[in-house]
Amino acid sequence: MLVERGRDDVKGETFYRLLGGTIEFGEPGAEALRRELHEELGTDVEVGDLVATVENLFTYEGEPWHELVLVFECNLLDERLFGREEWEASETLDGRVVTHEVVWKPVDAFGSDGEIFYPEELLTRLRSSESSGA
Q: What's the angle, vertex CA 99, arms to CA 93 and CA 103, rounded to 5?
């Protein structure tokens, strides 16, 4: 799966999460994903079914956060991205360029003996769907 590498300096940890961003008022979730991935990766995306919704309460850089994560099946339309293992993607937010480290990782790279993936509940769901063949 395609994930973004993040860093929490307060916790002293590197973690991974799915790419995406904020839904604008009145914007359907699938449209927000198309827009966000185009901004972050510079490619168009086919968005499929909504596969999970996860409520995520967490702390990042010492501050409490609360988000609802909508996870969709999707297909990147730029096939060149499938040949890259890792790269930096960037977008402009509030007039400044923000860089995201993006990497392809198998689901089994994360967990108790592997790297950190957030939200953890989503990792559990991804693993159960893989084992059920869904």
A: 130
